[in-house]
Amino acid sequence: MRPFPVSFRHLERMTDDTGLLEHCLGNIPRRREGYTTDDNARALWACAVWRQHANRTGDRDLLATLDRLIDRYLGFLLWVQQEDGSFHNNIGYDRRPEPEKPSDDCLGRALWACAVASASLPDSGRRFVASQLLAKGLPRATAMKFPRGWAFALAACSFLARNGSGSADSAACMELIELFEERLIRLYREASGDGWHWFEPVMTYGNGVLPWALFSAYRVTKREETLEIAKESLHFLIAKMTGQNGVIRPIGNRGWCTPQSRSDWDQQPLEVMKLALASAEAHAVLADPMYWQTVEKCRAWFYGGNDGAVPMADAAEGSCCDGLTPNGANLNRGAESTLSYLLTEAIYHNAVTGG
Length: 355
Description:
Layout: H1 9-14, E1 24-25, E2 28-29, E3 35-36, H2 37-57, H3 60-80, E4 90-91, H4 104-120, H5 124-137, H6 147-163, H7 170-191, H8 209-221, H9 224-240, H10 269-286, H11 289-302, E5 313-314, E6 319-320, E7 323-325, E8 328-330, H12 335-352
Antiparallel strand pairs: 1-2, 3-4, 5-6, 7-8
């Protein structure tokens, strides 16, 4: 049997009987900083898609590990979902919810993870839990005000429309697809202009989810304007995230990107994963090899194909450094960065093997 492409050793290290811890010092979890629903939703997504690959390879030990982790993350989401369908995001190590305002991004990420789990997990019991979380959360989506939340909800409903909606109402999913597709199109019309092909006046974080969601929606609605905006915005994002040497150069969080300037540092693994996600979806729709080349460059970023020429990921551990700075890699290996690496590998390998 060929070695499995990634390790889950670090993800197991960071997961206790409550859920996935948020931060590390080096490889060691920092318990005092607790948990986030954002990370536990990403972890459910990662384990669900890697489980498909493990099933194809017949790795029974890994399947047992992934099922055990999936149970932790489903249990976490079930615990933090509120009566109104929203999800509390920040939880202390003492299991007490921390003060916060409801987050559209958190709701969107949880809906997407539950959509993937409800459609892809082979066990009916786990699918049932994911579908119940989804059915309770989807009606809350109409109240979201911010575009990244819309994008995740749009992708989730589009995924369900193509793969089976489970306990989610099919008509309600189609209504949400039309609602969020139109909102993102309108946002793009208002913000884009000569030389600026984007949804907002500033490119900030998680940018790839916006064209990704429109490519996902197009697979259902076949609306030509959706496809054109998805293509134009993704081409613009690829250009902004590619350095003169051809390597992926994520937009840094020390100032982001405007029509007048662009920050190169600090580079976040999350941005690389979201670009790979959008590019893989574009390739699935258009079969243009340019998009697949972008996926390969995103994967290479984690192994040293970056501005620092330094490996960001440790394949033997399944972990990833938290960011790339002018002075090298940030050696802390928290949940977001580790999951960004694992998901980028999943995007690559599942496409290669037809998953």
